[in-house]
Amino acid sequence: MYEIDGKVDEILRTLERDGRISNVDLAEKVALSPSACLRRVQELERNGVIKGYRAVVDREKVGNGFSAYVAVGLSDHSKASQEAFERSMKLAPQVRECHNVAGAYEYLLRVEVADLNSYKVFHTDILGVVPHVNSITSYVVMGSPKDERA
């Protein structure tokens, strides 16, 4: 585990809010010299603490404004079944996130599609035909008052 001090925490929080901030502006915000700030950011990148930078896309504007979280239960809890399910989800472009979770279900998915009809097609024709899928519980996103994903 990488040791996070106060300055590194400030750098990470700032970059999470604005990954395109210039090094000079970042250094000013966290009260470091630009060279010291750049060294720290490069070290965070080298050590895999910062995995990459992303664009935050308005999904509605690109035709994928319908979001749902989907809890999926499997009928077979073997490693092979889980790996097969995960491979299927990696191939489904509608699945933006797939998490193996503890609790009543094995997986939690974040799905983004154009509309309810598109979700029905995903639910029936993609998720519904994956072997060992035993239960599907959908939670339609009606609004997101807080969303810190980048």
- Specify the CATH homologous superfamily of the largest domain: Lrp/AsnC effector binding domain/regulation of amino acid metabolism (RAM) domain
CATH architecture assignment name of the largest domain: 2-Layer Sandwich
The biggest beta sheet, please?
A: 4 strands, antiparallel
Specify the CATH class of the largest domain.
Alpha Beta
The CATH topology name of the largest domain reads: Alpha-Beta Plaits
What's the number of domains?
2
- Percent helix: 25-40%
Helix-strand pattern: HHHEHEEHE
Strand content: 15-25%
Instruction: Tell me, briefly, the overall form.
Output: elongated
Number of helices: 5
Q: Main sheet: which strands, in order across? A: 2-3-1-4
How far apart are the first and last residues' alpha carbons, in Å? Answer: 22 Å
Number of DSSP strand runs: 4
Quick structural summary:
It is built from 5 helices and 4 strands; from the N terminus they run H-H-H-E-H-E-E-H-E.
Give an account of the 3D structure.
The chain has 150 residues and is an alpha+beta fold. The protein has 2 domains: 41 residues, Arc Repressor Mutant, subunit A (Orthogonal Bundle), CATH 1.10.10; 75 residues, Alpha-Beta Plaits (2-Layer Sandwich), CATH 3.30.70. 38% of the residues lie in helices and 20% in strands. It is built from 5 helices and 4 strands. Strands 2-3-1-4 form a 4-stranded antiparallel beta sheet. A hairpin with a 6-residue loop joins strand 2 and strand 3.
Secondary-structure topology with pairs:
Elements: H1 6-17, H2 23-30, H3 34-46, E1 66-74, H4 79-91, E2 95-100, E3 107-113, H5 116-126, E4 133-140
Antiparallel strand pairs: 1-3, 1-4, 2-3
Helix pairs in contact: 1-2, 2-3
